[in-house]
Structures are given as C-alpha cells and as structure tokens.
Amino acid sequence: MYIVQILLLPVLILQICNAFPYANDLIINFLGNSNQMKINSKNGVPRGYVLFENSFYKYHRDPQTWAKARQICEVEGGYLAIVNSEEEANFLRGMMSKYPDDVLTDVVHKSCVFLGFHDYFKEGEFVTIDGKSLESSGYMHWAAGQPDNAGGKENCGALLRNGRLFDLPCGDKIPFICEISTDTLCTMTAVETNNQSNPDQSQTVPVFDVRSSARDD
Ligand SMILES: [Ca+2]
Ligand SMILES: [Ca+2]
Fold first, then answer.
1. Which CATH number belongs to the domain containing residue 55 in this structure?
2. Ligand 1: distance of its center to the CA of 165 in Å?
3. What is the CA(170)–ligand 1 centre distance, in A?
4. Residue 154 near residue 176, CB atoms below 8 Å
5. Per-residue pLDDT reduced to its tens digit, 10-46
6. Distance between Cα 106 and ligand 2 center (Å)
C-alpha cells in the first residue's frame, strides 16, 4: 500500500498541476521536508502577469519594436499575445485602459499594443505567430480602413484601445502584451529519493508549447 501511494503521487501532483498552475509552489511547500519526494519547480508565472480564462497576460508599458517585444515575451516563457475571441480582446482592452495616454508619457503611439500576428511572409496575408491564419485564430476585427500597409511597410499587428486590429511598421516602438497559456506552465521534475529507487531517476513533464517563429524587420 505504501509503495502504491509513492507511485501514484507523481500522477496526483500532475493532475493538480494541470488544474491549477500555482499548485507547483503549493506542492513544493507541502512536500518541502518530505524525504519521500523532491519536487523541482520551473517556469512559474513571472511577476506582473494576470490570469484571464486559460492564459496569463502582462502589459509591457515600455515601448519596443515588434521583434524585441516578441523576444521579451519568449524570455518570460510566453508569446506575444494572440487574440482568439471577443472576450479576450475585451480583456486586453481592459489592460490597456489602465495605461491611459497621460501615463504613457514617453510613448509615441499610445493607443495600441503589439500582438502576435503579422503579414511579413506575404503582403496582406496576416498570420499569427503560432502559424495560423489570422482569420482562423477566431478574432479578426480590423479598425476602419485597416489593414492599409501604409507607406508599403506595415507588416506587424497591433490592437487599438477600441479593440480593433491595426497594421503598423514592425520597427515602431509601442507597448505590447505577452501571453502565457496555463497549460504550458506546469513543468516539474519529480525525483524519487527513497532508498529503493535510483535517486537519479526522474519524471519530467515537458512544458512549453513552442510557438513557431516569424522574422521581423
Ligand atoms: Ca503589410
Ligand atoms: Ca495600418
């Protein structure tokens, strides 16, 4: 019975972890002094992220180019946000509303944030950074007159304060929103440390949903 409990513990932990991403830390605290199992947690939610439905989001107020914004999101374990519904767009609008124009004193384009879509591969064919057409992503409500590829050089996607999409130059520096899906957060390594098993044997659950890449200007 004791052995069964030990064997089932990793399964239980993973189920909890999938259901509740903060469970990692709770489990670590709970088992911190246990000599049965040692849990190593990685990829917790970075500071400043807010949960909405199945993702965490962070508004980055310091303006960056699209490529740099994308890189920052990836360093934080996520991706430049992809909007998949009206509800998600509304949530992001709410995040933007907390940074009104008078707060963004050093930002030239105060009314929009970069998102994870572009038409860099083929002019006019907008795709998300997870490799889908913008249309199939579930949200494609352009602002009036957009996309217009103004000046022949607008290949990166943004969200306006009114929830509409916009194309603008990838080299412009604007705020941006990163997204981390909750189902990519739960990585842990469970190492059995009891004397009956190999102490180096570990069970690792892969975490990251690697979003495919696109080039930037
Ligand atoms: Ca374009
Ligand atoms: Ca435009």
1. 3.10.100.10
2. 13
3. 10
4. no
5. 444 444 444 443 433 333 333 333 322 222 234 577 8
6. 22
Is 82 found in the same domain as 137?
yes
Counting every residue written for the chain, the total comes to 217
Q: Alpha-carbon torsion 185, 67, 135, 97, what sign?
A: positive
Same structural domain, 100 and 131? yes
> Which three-class secondary structure string do you get for the chain?
CHHHHHHHHHHHHHHHHHHCCCHHHHHHHHHCCCCCEEEEEECCCCCCCEEECCEEEEEEEEEECHHHHHHHHHHCCCEECCCCCHHHHHHHHHHHHCCCCCCCCCCCCCCEEEEEEECCCCCCCCEECCCCECHHHCCCCECCCCCCCHHHCCCEEEEECCCCEEEECCCCCEEEEEEEEHHHCCEEEEEECCCCCCCCCEEECCCCCCCCCCCCC
How far apart (Å, rounded) are the C-alpha atoms in residues 128 and 211? 10
Domain containing residue 9: 2-44+185-204
Residues with CB in 5 Å of ion ligand 2: 146, 148, 150, 154, 167
Q: 103 and 123 share a domain?
A: yes
pTM of the model: 0.69
Band (192; pLDDT cuts 50, 70, 90): very low
Residues 27 and 62 in one domain: no
Distance (Å) from CA 46 to ligand 1 centroid: 32
